[in-house]
What we know:
Layout (H helix, E strand, L loop, with lengths): L7 H6 L5 H12 L4 E5 L2 E6 L2 E8 L4 E5 L12 E2 L10 E5 L7 H16 L16 H9 L1 H9 L2 H13 L3 H16 L6 H4 L2
Antiparallel strand pairs: 1-2, 2-3, 3-4, 4-6, 5-6
Helix pairs in contact: 4-5, 4-7, 5-7, 6-7
InterPro entries: YdeI_bac (IPR016786), YdhG-like (IPR014922)
Organism: Hyphococcus aureus
Protein name: YdeI family protein
Amino acid sequence: MMTAKKTPDAYFKNADKWREELLSLRKLLLSTGLTEELKWGSPFYTADGKHIVGLTAFKNHFCLWFPQGALLKDTQKVLINAQEGVTRAQRQWRMHDAKDIKPALVKTYVKEAVSLAKAGKEIKPKPKGVLVLPEELKTALSKNKRAGAAFEKLTPGKQREYAEYIAEAKQAATKERRLEKILPMIVAGAGLNDKYKNC
């Protein structure tokens, strides 16, 4: 995984995996007339200041990510929601080797994303109301004093992610499994989705 760099050039230069594939996608995205910037530690491409598509690498794949990807037609069914139940608008296009890069298709998706952005189309985040903790999470935090104390120190956003993660589970067994997974993360002061934010 790559560490955050201060410029797109540095990002590509220091890519320890997928460098050639990332450079191919970079060239392709720049050929569409988008402006390259560095946002959230990775190259990002904008049109008239509007966010269109990001480019990043993970351990097992590299991907394009569209902040408003849920609005795209996705005729080829290449887009996925990497954080089901958490992310409303963002979609990823994961690739595993150079053969997965389809220049004409990438340009088609980018062109549609630009058109939507210019038309002002976007899925806005849900307004955040008062944080309500599911009973199961409340009970677990009261039983586990370390987790309870650590939870209080988390940002409101991280608290909300954990609350929603438990609330969305339909079955008691699923809630239990999720609680077992998140309690050590809470004690460590980590957010549920930190691994997606620090790519």
